Amino acid sequence: MAIWFWLALASNVVVWSIFFYLLSRRHWNVAALIVGILHMLFSVVLSVAPFRSFLDPHYPGLGLGFLRLKGLAVTLPATLIFGWAVAAAWLAISKGRGRWMTLIVVGDIFLALNFGGSTLLEGRSDNWRIDFGEGRSITGLASAFILLLFFTFPFVASAIWAARRSRSNGTAPPLTSDLQEKRSDTEDDTNDINSFCFSESGV
Predict the structure, then answer these.
(1) If DSSP codes are grouped into helix, strand and coil, which group holds residue 130?
(2) Model-level pTM greater than 0.90?
(3) How far apart are CA 81 and CA 188, in angstroms?
(4) Torsion on CA atoms 62, 153, 37, 22, rounded to nearest 10
(5) d(Cα 150, Cα 173) in Å, to the nearest integer?
(6) For each of the chain's 203 residues, which pLDDT tens digit applies?
């Protein structure tokens, strides 16, 4: 195995270990978990490109929607997008609300427009193509279906979720927020009962 493969594998082990650690703190809800997993899986897709583009002189290049780069030109963009995807996943399950969600919104909108726009604006179905390297690729309607279903719509949904969470006050994680809301509702119900009992005893 080439050294870039082992470096990519090591980076995945590190970022996934941190992800599972953040999960163990249980500062998330189901929606945050789905968003986190989405971005972690996307980071896996990109995890090889930063290392291979830098170490392999025969690296064929990277194509992400409108973004099509070759050789060393891939290294910096791939590293930035990989880092963003990992950070977005960690933020989704650890923060879950507040201004940090804007980082997820901006990246998700960019990727949704990038993948969706490049797919829909291609004039011919022959131009719809997903390259996996080493001469393996998917073309035609199957490629368009995969790009829209797995690389466009999920980021649209994630952007909507993150935008709503960014408008929430404070930085409490979603699971904590939900528990606080339930506790508040319970306390309100208890206060109502106590008030009723007090008025009855007064009579």
Answers:
(1) strand
(2) no
(3) 46
(4) 110
(5) 26
(6) 689 999 999 999 999 999 999 999 988 999 999 999 999 999 998 999 999 999 998 888 887 878 888 889 999 999 999 999 999 999 999 988 899 999 999 999 999 998 888 777 765 656 666 655 555 566 667 777 777 888 899 999 999 999 999 987 544 455 544 544 455 555 555 454 444 333 343 43
